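BUG-485 | component: ligand-complex export | severity: low

The export step for nicotinamide-adenine-dinucleotide jobs runs without errors, but we want the raw record kept on the ticket for reference. Input record follows.
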Amino acid sequence: MQRLQNYISGQFSDPLSKSWLDVENPATGQNYGQCPDSDAADIDTAVRAAQSAFPLWNSLGAQKRSALLMKVADILEKRTDEFAAAESSDQGKPLRLAKSMDIARAVENFRFFATRLHHLEEKSVKSGEHVFHYIERNPVGVVGLITPWNLPLYLLTWKIAPAIAFGNTVVCKPSELTPLTAFMLCDVLHQAGIPGGVVNMVFGRGPTAGQALVEHKKVKAISFTGGTETGAHLATTAAPLFKKVSLELGGKNPNIVFADADLSKAIATTVRSSFLNQGEICLCGSRIYVHNSILEEFLDGFIAQTRNFKVGDPTHPDSRMGALVSAAHLEKVDSYVKLAVADGGRVLHGGKRAQLPAPFNSGHFYEPTILIHVPHDSRAIQEEIFGPVVTVTAFESEDEVVRLANEPEYGLAASIWTENISRAHRVARAVEAGVVWVNGWLLRDLRVPFGGMKSSGLGREGGDWSYDFYTEAKDICIQLSGFEK
Ligand code: NAD
């Protein structure tokens, strides 16, 4: 059994709480170890460490910080296989996906923000003959980073890399369900020479360790990725403390297929956007809207290709889906399928646990599930399921589908499939979402803003938007003297 430790001031340590949480491999349902169940005292120690490290780290300057981040990327890249195996066994996802997506993108997060440091420019404004302003940007200070279990290392590094690149020090609270790669990352940071206290990792539960981090007065900003309900609670805690808050929350993303779409491309991508990572990606397209005239053709292809999207041993190269993250999450996913059926929906594919032979017979596997005829006001259509479950709804007109797409409270992402460029622009503009893909899905670029509208979040990160969030802008105004007549 492996026992993970907190990483504070560059040292691994047991939690002051002396409490531990079991962590399991979701594919076998067996515990592989324990992680700290830290409390407010552990968080306080980590925040103090981050405060002490801040002056040195900030004064190091952009070039030196950039070089250190590059080293982190290089070491992580060299250890891709080891990290991918850990991510897969901790989260349940296919090993090949962990390798090609999670770890590759974690490496890219460090490289991108390391190079970003070489290209920062500030504005200056001349506002009178002898008066000018220049904008200075300084790091916020100690930043709290709270992350979920679906893309553990990828999302954690999406926050650590910009935060420390721009001169902040951080206290991270990764998901208690998937702590393994966060723990391993501490060793990489140490090897790369990131000074102790710059990145502190505290493991524990949300309502205890997470809450203490948000409440801590010396933590100036919180970047949070997780559920909408948690985000709302967090915002209420942070608001009276006047912290900067970035919230990346849930989604219920529409995937709209018009009659003139390139259907073979739309179907192949829709299988991935529905079921990649077991549907546990906030950007998955869980509501599929198909024009009435092509519904049958779409369903034939979609169901056939879903059959080939094999659920199995996450380490097997043929497996396209692994296990859901926990038994509780599987129960939640299944309850939404039952609800959809009770509301009048019909299961076209899946709709139940996937039974696998030992040692996976106690794992949390669920079949990729396609539902049709679910009434639009059903909670299965309006609420986030965050699993391998999609609904298919037929539509007649562009206006109708835009109205349906915008009905749920979420506004994270959308996909539109059409060969008509004017329609693509019209619908992309009308759909309420932070990112809209036309004839594609999950095409990411770290330079563009990422975030959601409505209940999917607050603020944007990525490129300049991360720079904005992790720094404070200051206007310095200079009036020149000696020009008086
Ligand atoms: P969650 O909200 O339950 O937990 C997220 C993190 O918050 C965990 O580390 C948890 O311990 C912590 N937490 C819980 N209660 C807290 C509290 N009171 N104070 C501070 N921290 C607290 O979410 P989850 O189940 O881990 O993740 C799934 C959710 O994340 C889904 O809704 C998904 O859509 C969302 N998500 C969003 C994005 C995005 O970029 N918008 C990306 C990935 C996942």
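Assignee comment: Attached the raw record above. The chain has a mean pLDDT of 97.
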